Amino acid sequence: xxxxxxxxxxxxxxxxxxxxxxxxxxxxxxxxxxxxxxxxxxxxxxxxxxxxxxxxxxxxxxxxxxxxxxxxxxxxxxxxxxxxxxxxxxxxxxxxxxxxxxxxxxxxxxxxxxxxxxxxxxxxxxxxxxxxxxxxxxxxxxxxxxxxxxxxxxxxxxxxxxxxxxxxxxxxxxxxxxxxxxxxxxxxxxxxxxxxxxxxxxxxxxxxxxxxxxxxxxxxxxxxxxxxxxxxxxxxxxxxxxxxxxxxxxxxxxxxxxxxxxxxxxxxxxxxxxxxxxxxxxxxxxxxxxxxxxxxxxxxxxxxxxxxxxxxxxxxxxxxxxxxxxxxxxxxxxxxx
Length: 337
Ligand code: FAD
Ligand code: EPU
Hints:
Blueprint: E1 2-6, E2 18-25, H1 28-37, E3 43-46, E4 52-53, E5 58-65, E6 70-75, E7 79-85, H2 90-99, E8 124-125, E9 128-129, E10 134-141, E11 147-151, E12 173-183, H3 196-202, H4 210-224, E13 232-233, E14 242-244, H5 245-254, E15 261-262, E16 268-270, H6 273-279, E17 286-287, E18 290-292, E19 300-302, H7 308-326, E20 335-336
Parallel strand pairs: 2-5, 3-5, 4-20
Antiparallel strand pairs: 1-2, 6-7, 7-12, 8-9, 10-11, 10-12, 13-19, 14-16, 15-16, 17-18, 18-19
């Protein structure tokens, strides 16, 4: 257990907030002992810290999830069922699946973070969301220590959303294991999104396999997104907003070239927030230690030494400007602590 510790190495934004205490959690027993011994101490569960923004020092104990383990619990000719502990690295799990030619998560390669956090906001990229392969999520109640399993349906997954992200549940459940179903055959690769087809074509790959798709995704991501080891960030700062057909029509009158995507709901469309922020002139703008990334307007960055409040102030200015220019309200994807 560490006392009065800087959280800078524990969040990809590189914010130098302090925690009163930090415990490296290597087992469920250890977690339960802390809950028992310190019932009144405020607690923060932390994975890799790639989707948090610290606005203040944390007056309590940070529980850094390092619980490891992975086991195949069922296998047939078509699929495998695998249980993975929450402290495992998400990307390492993807690489394991890709190496074994298990399909389902290759489009989610290189997303930072831990397996236990993946259900929290239903991580997604390149036309796939983790909900597509989750069977169930196993949790421990942070007050009663009772285990509870949520089926896929009970997780209420949505776009960058789940039951665990709701204000009334946040911090209440420690996700300690996730059960995934991955595919061995009769599996259709998803190559239709973004530049995947283009990259495969450039490489003259006509009949791609799971590994080819993962490599294409990694290549695209490396070219687009800043590496948090070099420049502090938490990926997309805002969610892409949804608009009605009428709102889209109004926007198209002023901005005929506005990109949009269909959603699974009729007459509801998704607009890339990066495009709105870019068109509004924010891309590449720097204000002291904070700024909007020059290649991806949806990514706010810490050039070094920024406070969480400085990042939040910039985010609020962008929210106001987008509201004023397009009558669209941006919602942060990042969790404010
Ligand atoms: P943390 O930041 O540690 O935690 C996030 C939240 O979950 C916090 O509120 C925390 O308290 C809570 N939490 C953490 N662990 C647990 C647990 N075990 N049980 C319960 N609650 C918990 N996301 C995408 O969806 N798609 C992308 O393509 C993507 N690209 C990114 C690219 C970059 C460069 C970066 C920096 C981030 C990107 N992200 C993306 C966001 C981020 O990687 C994901 O949200 C990831 O799942 C966060 O995992 P983490 O372990 O770092 O979570
Ligand atoms: N765009 C611009 N200017 C920019 C950035 C984007 O015009 O500065 C336009 C692009 O030209 C493109 C569109 O916006 O037409 C979408 O851009 P991109 O493909 O880069 O994806 P995104 O919508 O910005 C989303 C996710 C990412 C995910 C990618 C790939 C959200 C909030 N973000 O980004 O997830 O990796 O798609 O699927 O849904 C994250 O959640 O942290 C994250 C990085």
